[in-house]
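Morning, I've got a small favour to ask if you have a moment. It would help a lot if you went through both lines with me. Thanks so much in advance, here it is.

***
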Amino acid sequence: MDPWKIPFLNTAILLTSGITITIAHKALAQGEHRKDFIESLMVTIGLGALFTALQIFEYANASFSIWDGIYGSVFYMATGFHGFHVLVGTIFIIVCLVREINYHFTPEHHFGFTACVWYWHFVDIVWIFLYLSIYMWGGR
């Protein structure tokens, strides 16, 4: 699998989503930018969905399966587990968006969203490790 095609694009997508969720967090913390908060969350949700769609496309077009040796097993288990966490994180962000639409967050009271941001950044960091170890190093 070429690490410079879909895997690199997915890396750029997740890193960009880390920026958009940070923009949303700053907008919420400042309290005067509700529109920016909502728009940034919607972009982050779109990026999470795009990542998931590209991961599914990559699985459907891979030249190997989970049964094709240790690389296939590790590849599908690690990226699949990560993909599941991206899906959970995207749902978490959707819940936060719905909560914001219903005025549940204030600049002083938004720990639920802060936890969502931490989770999303953790998913980003794990992806960088997976990209380097599975696509760049392991795929040689």
